[in-house]
Amino acid sequence: MSKTYKTSVNSNYNFELSQDSVSTLDALKTADNTFHILENNTSFKAQILASDFNKKSYKVEINDTTYAVQINDELDDLIKEMGFEIGASKTINDIKAPMPGLILSLNVSEGQEVKENDPLLILEAMKMENVFNSPRDGIIKSIAVKTGDAVEKNQLLIEFEN
Predict the structure, then answer these.
(1) Burial 84-101 (b: 16+ CB within 10 A, else e)
(2) Which of 66, 69, 79, 93 is the most buried (most CB within 10 A)?
(3) What is the spatial distance between Cα 40 and Cα 22, in angstroms, rounded to a whole number?
(4) What sequence ranges are listed for the domain Lipoyl-binding (predicted)?
């Protein structure tokens, strides 16, 4: 059985595509994100200008006209029907100690702007050094500990601005 994709173009033109029809599309890749497409003896130049894989949305230019394209499959529809949002993630606003330990070093200060995966601090626990990286881009609102502090499980370490 062929998989079906529900496609929306510019939020007002909706249609369904089957996996079989997509696989038989006469398209030739001419460069990165650029394709030559032949459909019903008509030639089209297509370029993917932007894409968001998590939201399954794309900005595509075809013969000098730009389109916003959204593509969903049966799983996306089921997730939406169940009330969940695709690609949604919880924003983390604070870092708490996952276990008792000792703060070995702090790599940030209050008011500092950090990027996702920047090292924030090192916690020694059970004779192991655990580096805590930033879970998101943001600004450090407050630091509740200092180097040398002993911390308990679930104790607030760092808080982000909302």
Answers:
(1) eeeeeeeeeeebebeeeb
(2) 69
(3) 14
(4) 83-161
pLDDT digits (tens, 9 = 90+) for 5-58: 888 899 888 888 888 887 888 999 999 999 999 988 899 999 999 988 778 889
DSSP 3-state of 76: helix
The conformation of residue 110, written as its DSSP 8-state character, comes to T
The H or E element containing residue 128 is: strand 128-133
Which tens digits make up the pLDDT trace of 110-125? 999 999 899 999 999 9
Residue 53 in contact with residue 86, Cβ under 8 Å?
A: no
Write down the pTM of the prediction: 0.47
Contacts with 21 (C-beta within 8 Å, 6 or more apart), sequence order: none
